[in-house]
Amino acid sequence: QKEVEQNSGPLSVPEGAIASLNCTYSDRGSQSFFWYRQYSGKSPELIMSIYSNGDKEDGRFTAQLNKASQYVSLLIRDSQPSDSATYLCAVIAGYSSASKIIFGSGTRLSIRP
Amino acid sequence: GAVVSQHPSRVICKSGTSVKIECRSLDFQATTMFWYRQFPKQSLMLMATSNEGSKATYEQGVEKDKFLINHASLTLSTLTVTSAHPEDSSFYICSALILSPQGRTQYFGPGTRLLVL
After folding, report:
1. Summary count for chain B: helices (H), strands (E)
2. Could you report the per-residue pLDDT of B5-64, keeping only the tens digit for each?
3. Taking a C-beta distance cutoff of 8 angstroms, is the pair A74, A48 a contact?
4. Best of B98, B104, B107, B112 to disrupt the A interface by mutation (most A CBs within 10 Å)?
5. Cβ of A43 and B111 within 8 Å?
6. What are phi and psi of A4, to 5 degrees?
7. Measuring CA to CA, which residue among B88, B78, B83, B34 is closest to residue B57?
8. Which residue in chain A is spatially nearest to B38 when comparing CA positions?
9. Cα gap B44→B91, rounded to integer Å
10. Three-state secondary structure string covering chain A
């Protein structure tokens, strides 16, 4: 089992709709959770970080964390063509300060006009 | 968010030469930086963890004598690809770790695209 799992997609969503991206992780000791956006040919850009259960909203983005279910999601409201990218879920597993960030393989999101 | 820069953004070199890539944290001090490599349409691959003032920690399968990492200051880490070959052509991305009361966050540089002829 992969440590951080995402559906590779592509996920196709019509413009203006809500895009829902999901991620599960295997280490129950994980404490920090992130969503990065990566455009083709560019480096990943941090768009959301979440550290406690519940929802965290930032503009059109909402991250949801459920530690009991080991599940983190990203909702993008009013999807725009510029949201088309690969979204990487990342988790820092474990309690040690030396714990590494583990990335999922990414979900390709395509917003169709 | 925090700013991490890389230089150069792209480099073309001849096979057998060495290439140095710089990674800087611009508005914060980073005791820990990471170096990744990404081939087209593939996932990020962690190469090594760079710790200020100490030796880098390399991931399994990454040759430490080929990919030299130096982290001599709190704002600069360098990756030198020695005796580069065409198979080393890739997108090299650094990132820096920030510690906050909430937890740890990692910010990426813009990446360096290396083409070895």
Report:
1. 0, 11
2. 999 999 999 999 999 999 999 988 888 899 999 999 898 999 999 988 888 999 999 999
3. yes
4. B104
5. yes
6. -130, 120
7. B34
8. A43
9. 9
10. CCCEEECCCCEEEECCCCEEEEEEECCCCCCEEEEEEECCCCCCEEEEEECCCEEEEECCEEEEEECCCCEEEEEECCCCHHHCEEEEEEEECCCCCCCCEEECCCEEEEEEC
Contacts of A34 in chain B (CB under 8 A): 105-106
Structure tokens at A66: 């459920």
Q: Which among A43, A49, A100 has the least Cβ separation from residue B105?
A: A49
Query: Tokens 């130096």 — which residue?
Result: B70
Q: Over pLDDT 90: what percentage of chain A?
A: 80
In angstroms, the separation between the Cα of residue B43 and the nearest Cα of chain A is 6
